[in-house]
Q: What sequence folds into this?
């Protein structure tokens, strides 16, 4: 079965993926940070038992694992594939995860909050994901009453999640727009409408690969539909502007663009060593080149799958021994040579 | 403009310093700015959990020592989370912390969310009053044959009820009257449907 990020979405150009995350707490227990080891274990086991038939009615298979039973490398690899967040990777207390076969649905138990429901899909599909998340939410709620307050909504560990407990996010590819002088201003404008935009890879304001995640800032005082609407509109707005800039660049600098894309392909296809930074920059060029019809490969493929595949823990997982930094760069180049289709 | 410290990255933070009446402008990139000492505002440059950290700043983590002693004695009776701990971590220890610390942080929450009343989804399966309203009997079973349109009405009634409670709390009787009428109207509609 193809995992969610291996599927190609032919929908809106520039949109990579959508994500819905809901956090909930079971009203019978204190929040995870104040539970001791014994209580945590007892709670996770109760949740595991109560949710063991999750997805059965719809024919979906979920596997359950205690996070502590997974190797640290596996947890980091799952974070790189966006299933876990940093809190789940570093978590030391008893915690568990229900995960679907293609990794698009994950329910993490007892990390920052008792229950963290997350759904991922390629393309712009927040509405659809919200529908599905809502069903899982109701299924869990039918078995475990939630900590809820008329005024504050769903009660969560962090005030930044209270209310709906919803984080809706969309990853978009903005290689040209982000180079422009007005980009920072554009991001601030989005902030005024309640959508925050941040670079996905690289540190601080360096963003290798030009992938940006747009998500809602506020969780209280807005309905879920309003939140989804804000993020969807911001995604459409930013990708539309990117498309305009790209169209202009094709009209004015087609030769240069073509040259950049083919050079990137050449480097990716023949390199023997590639740093994460370089690989992301060249893959970003290929992504834009494919979308603009500047380059064609023999088979259709998801560039995003390669972007996730070349992250350190996922590469390390392919090897049977620990790799040094140089060896990792070698493994990265080899992975891309193998996975990048012929022209 | 390039950052005046590293001279590599673009400067996107402008810092104005006024010493003895002499104004000096500096331009830094986010990375260099983070390494410098901006006191409580440093949280802004920390990408790990900016909103939470910022909230600590807004709540006045710097001022906790000077604040009234009473605040330091506040403790959640259920989980034992203290005021200082709550301000430091921006984290609730249990559901009851909301009633303990909630009223103390209304202004910060308003700054964070802009609005203090939940208007989104409500849990379908657990609310006694809500379930009574839905089924008319108080049973906790979900009725699958229920008309979806009437279910929407009940949800609306529930939301108006919440608004009514809020209005009464702030002694805003004008809004309360509007809510009360709206609830009456919705309830009538449901009876007519039935």
A:
């Amino acid at each position: 079965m193809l995992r969610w990020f291996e599927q190609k979405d032919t929908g809106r150009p520039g949109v990579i993926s959508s994500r819905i995350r809901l956090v909930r707490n079971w009203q019978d227990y204190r929040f995870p940070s104040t539970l001791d080891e014994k209580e945590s274990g007892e709670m996770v086991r109760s949740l595991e038992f109560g949710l063991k038939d999750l997805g059965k009615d719809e024919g979906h298979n979920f596997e359950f694992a205690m996070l502590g039973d997974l190797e640290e490398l596996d947890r980091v690899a799952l974070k790189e594939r966006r299933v876990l967040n940093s809190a789940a990777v570093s978590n030391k207390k008893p915690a568990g995860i229900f995960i679907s076969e293609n990794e698009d649905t994950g329910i993490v138990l007892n990390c920052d909050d008792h229950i963290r429901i997350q759904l991922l899909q390629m393309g712009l599909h927040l509405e659809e994901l919200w529908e599905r998340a809502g069903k899982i939410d109701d299924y869990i709620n039918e078995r475990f009453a939630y900590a809820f307050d008329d005024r504050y909504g769903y009660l969560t560990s962090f005030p930044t999640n209270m209310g709906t407990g919803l984080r809706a996010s969309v990853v978009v590819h903005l290689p040209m727009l982000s180079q422009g002088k007005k980009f920072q201003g554009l991001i601030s404008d989005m902030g005024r409408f309640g959508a925050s935009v941040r670079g996905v890879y690289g540190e601080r304001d360096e963003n290798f690969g030009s992938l940006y995640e747009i998500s809602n800032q506020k969780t209280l005082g807005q309905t879920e539909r309003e939140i989804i609407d804000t993020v969807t509109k911001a995604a459409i707005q930013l990708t539309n502007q990117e498309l305009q800039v790209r169209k202009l660049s094709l009209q004015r600098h087609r030769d240069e663009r073509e040259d950049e894309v083919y050079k990137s392909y050449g480097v990716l296809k023949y390199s023997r060593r590639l740093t994460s930074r370089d690989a992301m920059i060249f893959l970003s060029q290929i992504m834009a080149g494919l979308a603009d019809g500047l380059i064609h490969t023999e088979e259709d493929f998801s560039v995003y799958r390669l972007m996730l595949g070349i992250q350190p823990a996922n590469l390390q997982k392919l090897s049977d021994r620990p790799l040094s930094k140089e060896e990792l760069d070698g493994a990265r180049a080899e992975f891309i040579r193998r996975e990048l289709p012929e022209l | 403009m390039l950052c005046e410290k590293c001279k590599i990255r673009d400067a996107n933070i402008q810092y104005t310093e006024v010493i003895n009446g002499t104004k000096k402008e500096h331009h830094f990139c986010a990375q260099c700015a983070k390494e410098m000492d901006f006191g409580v505002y440093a949280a802004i440059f920390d990408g790990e959990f900016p909103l939470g950290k910022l909230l600590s700043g807004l709540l006045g983590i710097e001022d906790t020592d000077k604040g009234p002693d009473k605040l330091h004695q506040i403790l959640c009776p259920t989980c034992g989370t203290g005021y200082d701990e709550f301000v430091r971590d921006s984290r609730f220890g249990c559901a009851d912390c909301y009633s303990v610390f909630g009223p103390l942080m209304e202004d910060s929450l308003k700054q964070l969310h802009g609005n203090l009343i939940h208007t989104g989804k409500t849990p379908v399966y657990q609310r006694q009053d809500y379930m009574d309203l839905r089924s008319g009997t108080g049973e906790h079973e979900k009725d699958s044959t229920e008309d979806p349109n009437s279910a929407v009405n009940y949800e609306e009634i529930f939301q108006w009820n919440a608004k009514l409670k809020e209005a009464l709390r702030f002694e805003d009787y004008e809004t309360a009257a509007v809510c009360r009428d709206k609830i009456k109207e919705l309830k009538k509609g449901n009876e007519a449907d039935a």
About this structure: Residues 46-50, 62-66, 129-152 of chain B have pLDDT under 50 and may be disordered. The beta strands of chain B are 13-19, 22-28.
